Amino acid sequence: MKDTIERSIYFQAPVERVWRALTTKEEINAWFTDRGIDGDIAVGEDMVMCFKLSSSDETGRCRAKVETMDAPSHFAYRWLPGNLNEKPLDEVPTTLVEFFLVPEGEGTRVTVKESGFASLPENLMADAFKDNSEGWAEVMESFRKYGESWNKQSTAV
Amino acid sequence: MEQAVDSRLNKVFAALADSSRRKILTRLAQGPAAIVDLARDLPFTRQAATKHLLTLRKAGLVEDRKQGRAQVYELTPDSLLCAEQWIEGLEADWDRRLGALARHLRENP
What we know:
The complex is a heterodimer. By secondary structure, chain A is an alpha+beta fold. Helix content of chain A is 29%, strand content 34%.
């Protein structure tokens, strides 16, 4: 299970301009949270990010907590990705989303890093388990081995 | 996409939430088996095995095929890739958002 997603992209805009687009409500709403943000974008504050889901017209509501705001170079928040999460963040596993802004030429290079996936599925699965009996590790292990042998077979073909 | 993967993951988690079904999966990881084999190797009846296999099949964790007169069940290895697919979906989400951000910055310099 990979732990981190990383994306890097160059914007033809000064670093302060990109920072504003990432950290002010009306700006984020223009490119991401098209259905608004409840709460303040400030360190330690809970906010709920609302956006149209790509698969339907429904609104995704995702609770997030800002961890770092070092203008204009580092913005980070925690959330539970890809899901409709309105539970308090200390009750659910989270990933950390970080934006790193670095001036490059006349523009800005932004690296987005989302990390913490390795612990995520396990926790989500633990949640799903009504009975906490043994057997889970064995299943994962046997699946992994089975998958490996299956992959070998298919590459051989 | 998000929702399709989410719903599949939910099914997978629900199917795995039962220790009998985990035992079946562990047994099937050693090789394909018919219901009689499972009922012989594991501590439950054929009826119970049939019911669990149905749940596992709906979650995409096992497949069945005819082998002679018997119905044989085997693991679908790519079902484990489900979690990986979920992450790929999230990567695609970021690509989409960053694309939207690039457009926004072009249109609102």
